[in-house]
Design goal:
Elements (H helix, E strand, L loop, with lengths): L10 H30 L19 H9 L4 E3 L2 E3 L1 E2 L9 E4 L5 E7 L11 E4 L2 E8 L2 E6 L5 E7 L5 H13 L8
Antiparallel strand pairs: 1-2, 3-4, 4-5, 5-9, 6-7, 7-8, 8-9
Helix pairs in contact: 2-3
Keywords: Membrane, Transmembrane, Transmembrane helix
Organism: Amycolatopsis silviterrae
Protein name: DUF3515 domain-containing protein
Amino acid sequence: MADTETGAPPKVVLVTASLLVAALAVAVAVVALTKSSSEQAAPNQPLALVSVPAPQAGSADCAKLTAGVPSTLTSNGKELSPRTLAEPAPKATIAWGEPDPVVLRCGLERPPDLTRTSPLRVVNTVQWLQIEQGGSATWYAVDRPVYVALTVPASAGTGPLQTISDAIAAKLPVKPLTF
């Protein structure tokens, strides 16, 4: 290749380099779009949950409650669909929504943070103990024959807690708190 009078590369080299840069940009965009669409193409992957001690998960009370919760929950105006749980799925456990699910567990052990001085909140006649955990909170229903935990992401709003409170109030009788 001959240099031009100004010392700049020939026009053909500049055009070729420009075309290669454009082709590379298109290739990167195609790979990025393909990757994100393949990740979105498989929604509702089974949700793997860590097993926690739930000695009463097989109880009649948990069976009544899990049969009585709605199939969908509403969170900030958005409907949360039920999630399939990965095997082995914990007993008496239900989840809704993606990517950060709302998870209900029934039949748990008494929460260790429950003391006579614990701050409790009453939501639709159910007494709850709230435990914050980073980007989520777990609410424990503490005034029923079994302990129920509802873990919600910080972005969930109060809809899931109110709906589950209604289901608990309808299906499980009130009992005195135990410490």
